[in-house]
Amino acid sequence: MKLHNMPSEFQEALPILNKLQSAGYEAYFVGGSVRDAILGRPIHDVDIATSAYPEETKSVFQRTVDVGIEHGTVLVLHHQHEYEITTFRTEDVYVDYRRPSQVSFVRSLDEDLKRRDFTVNAFALNQSGEVIDQFDGLTDLQQYLLRAVGVASERFNEDALRIMRGFRFAATLDFDIETETFQAMRETAPLLEKISVERIFIEFDKLLLARFWRKGFQKLIEAKAYNFLPEMKQKGTELTALLERLKEDFCFQTSEQAWAMLLIALEVKDVRGFLRKWKTSNDFQKTVSHLVEVYRIREEASADKWLCYKYGLDNLLLVEDLRQAQGLSVETESIQALDASLQIHDKHELVVNGATLMQEFGIKPGPQLGKLLTTIEEAIVWGQIENQKEAIFAFLEGKGIV
User: Fold this and answer.
1) Is the pLDDT of residue 261 over 80?
2) Using one digit for the tens of pLDDT, what is the confidence trace for 130-187?
3) Secondary structure of the chain in the HEC alphabet?
């Protein structure tokens, strides 16, 4: 097969291939970018593989960075772009079901392609647009099928993260998983417990945000892989219910929204505790917690000014989106109106602070001052007073607070 219209991302990188070849080495575009080019999908990262060893690659180019030279990867800076160039390699026995105990550099493209995970990721593309397909990946692309390269169980035993990548590719590409490959994924799923949770989170997160996330999610459930993910053991019924709750065409808008819905379906009470097991950031935990809180409040009551102020318009709209996806009533327009009516959206927008009150009323620092500021904040949010010094002072004096 030949790509007659090579994507601009490849065209911009052609000088890299040409320079390596002029120096006497083989060089190809490889991996997922080639697959996406064949499918007409957007290309994100252009990866290049070469017969040149790392030091040889560095001798060809003036501007390079050793980003992973022990694994054969050199970063080449070309104009405004950066390209990872990796030496053809084979990998020895894997340790921890993730990392090869040793990487051997080779001059053979065939040997390099054999170590890839799935046939649709094992393409190479030369500078003329010719697709090199050693494992009949083109047929799998035509059939929308995900198949492991070689013996499936060996691929997943080498690197168990490939199991999650398989589910993710099903979700992003809308591919089915070939029978033997899926059986191997199911059998080796316990190895996921050997993989760092941070890497699993990245793959799961990409799955949830994919257009065809339901397909990947369903395959994960069918493989019972959830039993080997943090805090999800024996949660197959709840995960299946999540699919049933949401409309067929629904897609998550953000990672935080997706994980909030996941935790709601799992009926998780300690949201932050759950997300800590996944080693997520504090900011991520905070936002997901807020979404879950708003969702539960909305199960019992309508939104009001304080809810808008406390959690923010964006979070409330994400929750309404989840409600709509389940056929529940939504208050999108009224929430937008409530938010528009707020005088302040953050306490830092108050025209007074502790220093102002201490100076005006002789109040000393302490709990009383904090309570006073909260009283002012709430009165302004509810629209009882204007966010103006005179109005605030009159309010405090009229109430006999100061």
Assistant:
1) yes
2) 999 999 999 999 999 999 999 999 999 999 999 999 999 999 999 999 999 999 999 9
3) CECCCCCHHHHHHHHHHHHHHHCCCCEEEECHHHHHHHHCCCCCCCEEEECCCHHHHHHHCCCEEEEEHHHCEEEEEECCEEEEEEECEEECCEECCCEECCEEECCCHHHHHHCCCEHHHCEEECCCCEEEECCCHHHHHHCCEECECCCHHHHHHHCCHHHHHHHHHHHHHCCEECHHHHHHHHHHHHHHHHCCHHHHHHHHHHHHHCCCHHHHHHHHHHCCHHHHCCCCCCCHHHHHHHHHHCCCCCCCCCHHHHHHHHHHHCCCCCHHHHHHHCCCCHHHHHHHHHHHHHHHHHHHCCCCHHHHHHHCHHHHHHHHHHHHHCCCCCCHHHHHHHHHHCCCCCHHHCCCCHHHHHHHHCCCCCHHHHHHHHHHHHHHHCCCCCCCHHHHHHHHHHCCCC
Joined tokens for residue 358: 């201490």
Using CA atoms, how far apart are residues 285 and 261, in angstroms rounded to an integer? 13
User: Could you give the CA distance from residue 384 to residue 332 in angstroms, rounded to a whole number?
Assistant: 24
Q: pTM to 2 decimals?
A: 0.91
Please report the sign of the dihedral spanned by the C-alpha atoms of residue 149, residue 153, residue 156, residue 158: negative
Q: In this structure, what token pair is assigned to residue 308?
A: 């808008």
What is the pLDDT at residue 202?
Answer: 98
Confidence band for 95, pLDDT divided at 50, 70 and 90: low
DSSP for 98-113, please give it.
Answer: TEES-EEE-S-HHHHH
Q: How many helices (H) and strands (E) does the chain have?
A: 20, 13
Say how many C-beta atoms besides its own lie within 10 A of residue 116's C-beta: 23
pLDDT of residue 97: 53
Residue 338 scores a pLDDT above 70: yes
| Residue 402 confidence (pLDDT) | 59
Residue located via tokens 């007074």: 352
The pLDDT of residue 4:
86
Q: Are 242 and 262 in contact (CB under 8 A)?
A: yes
The structure tokens listed for 2 are 């030949």
Report the pLDDT value the prediction gives residue 115, as an integer from 0 to 100: 87
Q: Say which residues have a Cβ less than 8 Å from residue 355's Cβ, sequence separation at least 6.
A: none
Mean pLDDT throughout 24-39?
A: 95
State the greatest distance between any 2 C-alpha atoms of the chain, in Å, as a whole number: 88
